[in-house]
Write a sequence for this structure.
């Protein structure tokens, strides 16, 4: 999503020393967990130390389970990734073909005008924000503290702060939400020129977002999606901010993360929706 459609400044991402964190709190389907291979943790740490920028990656099985977070980029502006819950909200409210066409444009080519029209179909302002907030809450952790809740910015929805932890949790529940199937299908039809990062992994349904900080001009690039693994899917959220500050260098960092993840997919476990 280009900066022109997000009027709020993008705050500099929260950073910490290289780390791998495992959230032991179970999701909404106890018993499903992701085993973190030592080789993946070790290789991520080695890779991160050599990368010219800040990166983050979060993993969680679809349906719930243990969350694993890597890296020194932990939270930032959602940019166009917020178009996913926006599209779910709009399609849940209306099955009209014109709304589906807007959702297709907003997701597959990240069309900002289409996203604005989806927002308008929900009533604009606080009314639209409430509709999208409902989707975020449905995909959130009901056991989480209120302070950890992702709160939609109704004045500039792309400027919403969305942590990797909350985003991967949302992704893990996205295919289980009522009315989400059309959106996840569209996430599997992203235009090739936005196919960096998770787009390099065959069969992955994903959405990217990107934009510059209003003060520094430094680009943040992020994605989240669903990676097929065996009989299930793995929710993944990744983000990067290159030292150079450019969009191109940041997408190159996401390519490196995706390549690392692909090498270790045979060791990981996906999940399915309960029921």
């Amino acid at each position: 999503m280009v900066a022109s459609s997000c009027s709020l400044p993008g705050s500099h991402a929260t950073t910490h020393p290289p780390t791998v964190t495992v959230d032991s709190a179970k999701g909404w389907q106890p018993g499903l967990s992701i085993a973190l291979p030592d080789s993946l943790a070790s290789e991520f740490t080695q890779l991160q130390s050599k990368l010219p920028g800040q990166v983050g990656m979060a993993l969680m099985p679809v349906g719930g389970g243990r969350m694993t977070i890597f890296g020194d980029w932990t939270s930032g502006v959602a940019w166009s990734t917020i178009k996913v819950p926006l599209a779910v909200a709009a399609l849940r409210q209306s099955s009209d073909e014109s709304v589906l066409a807007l959702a297709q444009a907003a997701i597959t080519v990240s069309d900002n005008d289409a996203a604005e029209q989806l927002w308008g179909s929900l009533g604009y302002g606080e009314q639209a924000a409430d509709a999208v907030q409902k989707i975020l809450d449905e995909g959130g952790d009901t056991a989480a503290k209120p302070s950890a809740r992702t709160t939609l910015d109704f004045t500039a929805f792309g400027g919403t702060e969305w942590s990797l932890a909350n985003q991967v949790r949302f992704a893990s529940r996205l295919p289980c939400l009522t009315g989400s199937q059309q959106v996840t299908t569209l996430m599997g039809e992203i235009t090739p020129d936005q196919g960096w990062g998770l787009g390099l992994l065959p069969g992955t349904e994903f959405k990217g977002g990107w934009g510059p900080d209003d003060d520094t001009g430094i680009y943040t690039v992020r994605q989240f999606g669903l990676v097929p693994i065996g009989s299930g899917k793995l929710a993944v959220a990744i983000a990067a901010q290159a030292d150079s500050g450019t969009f191109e260098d940041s997408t190159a960092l996401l390519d490196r993360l995706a390549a690392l993840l692909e090498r270790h997919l045979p060791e990981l476990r996906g999940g399915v929706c309960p029921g």
In short: The domain at 37-62+72-267 is CATH 3.40.710.10 (Beta-lactamase). The chain has one domain: 37-62+72-267.
